[in-house]
Design brief:
Elements lengths: L1 H6 L8 H16 L4 H7 L4 H25 L3 H8 L11 H20 L12 H12 L4 H22 L9 H12 L7 H11 L6 H13 L13 H20 L7 H12 L5 H15 L3 H8 L8 H12 L6 H12 L13 H12 L6 H6 L1 H15 L6 H4 L4 H8 L3 H15 L3 H9 L2 H5 L5 H14 L5 H11 L5 H14 L14 H7 L5 H15 L2 H9 L1 H8 L5 H15 L9 H10 L8 H17 L6 H8 L2 H8 L4 H18 L17 H14 L4 H11 L5 H17 L6 H14 L5 H22 L12 H5 L10 H21 L1
Length: about 850
Amino acid sequence: METLTKLSHTQPILGLRERTEMVSTCVKSVFSLPSVQAMQEKDEAQAEIIQTLYHQTLDALQKLLNALFAEDPTPTGLKTILEPLGPWMNSGKVHERRRAVNSNVSVLNHTLLTLPLFMSSGFPALGLLLGRLILRIGDPDEEIGREALDGIIILYTILELQKRAGDKEETNKKELYESNKRFLGPYNPVSPCQNILRVIAEFGDFLGPQQVKDLLLAALEGLKGVSETPRGKDSGEMMQLASEVTLSSVLEWYRHRVLEVIPEIMQGIYLQLSHIQEPRAREVALLPVSLLASSFMTEVVVALLMCPLPLDSNGAEMWRQLLLRKPSCDVRDLLDLLLTSLKEKPITKKGRASIVPLAAASGLCELLSIKSCMGRVRRIYPQLLLALLIQVHYHIGLSLPCRAANSKDGQKNLRLSCFLPARWVVKVVKTLLLKMGCSYEATFLEDQRGWELMEQAENHHRGVSLLARAMVHYSCQELCRILYLLIPLLERGDEKHKITATAFYVELLQMEQVRRIPEEYSLGRMAEGLIHQDPIMKVLSIRGLMILARRTEKTAKVQALLPSMVKGLKSIDGQLVVEAVENLKAIFKGQDRKLTGSSFCVEMLQALLPHFSDSREDVRCSCINLYGKVVQKLRSPHSRDMEEQLVSTLVPLLLITQEGNTKVSQKCLKTLFRCSCSMAWELPKGVYSRKPWDSQQQVVAKVCKYLVNTHKESAFTFLSQSLEYAKNPRASLRKASVIFIGSLVPCMESIMTEDQLKEVKVALENLRHDPEASVCIYAAQAQDHILTSYWQTSWPLLQGDSWMCDPSSTHQWSPSCENLPTSHQRRSWLRQALSNWKMSMKQ
């Protein structure tokens, strides 16, 4: 250190980073030494030498620090010297604190004696230095306390000199120092808090917003090592008292100065809490939260909304502090602020992620644990509930912003990876319900997996509907307020907002109070939803109309909207179809008269038919069942469009019967029977059998013959439908369609064209290479059946040798096909086509 002191006069001078590193290294090497007494006890023979060397070492460090300041006598230079000393002033070891305080005071004294003129711009890190020295006034060791007060007096003298820098008269530093010593002193070892209060009061002229903030954070530093302090005097309590007095007095006198730095103060408190474990010390550390919130609640809440998510115990405790400690902020204003934040979107207009709504939900969850605020929560319970439900929808699929997710702590990373924002908001919804006494509703959703549905994109509306249904079932007291709140909400916000609000509102239509609502807000809103672009809105509207149809005075008006409901089905798919169909079925059950074959019935059947081949069993069952219900309601005579629609249903129903699903087959046969009764068809007896066609192909042949003979104009529709089902992903349907084609095509021999025959040939040829072996076998059989049938019907005399003569020589006709009569031309191209087909099969 002596060498470094001499080198400090050489050029070039050290850079900022090198100076800071050098000071930190030297300070650590000296301050971490054991106490002089400990070193002497370890080697009593060298006790005197040890003491001499110890003082020489401290003196060398002090000279080095003074030389470094002389090398760079600027605010930045002084800051690089004082900053490394700070942490040692809060050490749990007395001798380390004593060394740190002594070095600080020595540097300040040196600064006072050599105060340069350009230091008049301000003292660097004043708040931190003052705060650390103030805490040491309350140190259990009187020597440290006395020296810390002396350092504060020197600091005050430096600040006064800076203040008088513009004066013409030169100030005597020693006289000013002695005057300040009498003014701020003397040191009171019995009640050092009196000294602390006096110092804080007198330093007011030198404390701006940043200095007050640093002073508060420095006071928190003194609480970190409370649990580690040695016994003797109750040093832990003394440090807590010093910190508490500092925090409360600073905020009492200078609270108005910290408005612009509240976010930094809240962040500092949050970070310090991780290092403070002793309960009483944590209470002291949290004191600024409640004190600041009593005057600047909005700014404090905004700062707390920036706490890292998910909230840990420290963040949660800061939220609860708003109401638990006096002076507390106004509960009503606090809840209104949170509600406003809950109405924000987690994605801003610029596409950036925002944690504000999620943070507000987290803060609300913590406040719900405080009984004293439950009355105020109930006041805005409907708004809170709906805002949270909408936030669940917004947060589905979102993750925390990278700023909140980055952490070197492995355990925290694991916690973040398991944290799903939507699931967290669902937890807050559940907590709110339980606190409002809705335990039955919460249990109902738990049993029905409603909470899980609520946090899934495709099922969110179902979870919300379940919640509303449960609240209606258990007669929740707040439903009327929620109902009247929802009416204007249905028109606001984006699609997610509207879907969540509508899903809740629809279930409330079961309430008796709905009768008081103008029809435009009940029936009118549901009718508007039928033409909405979003399929979910259409399904919700259909359900709402189904609920309204239960009321006698609404039934006729709802049934008048059936055409619009049917049109809405065309753009709906999947599980939504099942929901819509079930609700439509309920409306049809309420029909007390037969339906005519009106266009809307045809449209409804047309909308249902494509879903017969859906991959999901429940979709197929629901659509086939409703199809039969509609047919059952039809009244004869049928329109031509209705007849064509019912005829087009025959082949799909027959083929789906063979898919091997008992439940679906039963629905198909029941619907087929209803179609048959409605149209007075006399279908072959074997049609209603569920036996596999591969064991009763004669029945298939009879059915095909009946279909072609009875509905000849629809024969090509039957063929087209069977060819389409031959492409179905389910092997059972492909096999059934192949068997059906093999029996249908021979029945159409008189009306088949060459192009159609080629289409059948290509389809069967492809099916002979199907992954399913049974499909390949029946495709080959169908080909053989068609060839055999056409060969026999087209050339009946070909079996004997008598028809081997040249027809041109017998009838004197030209062998050219173009010159043949029309009846013979057809047989000629058929023979050629079949011969080519047979050759391709052999290849």
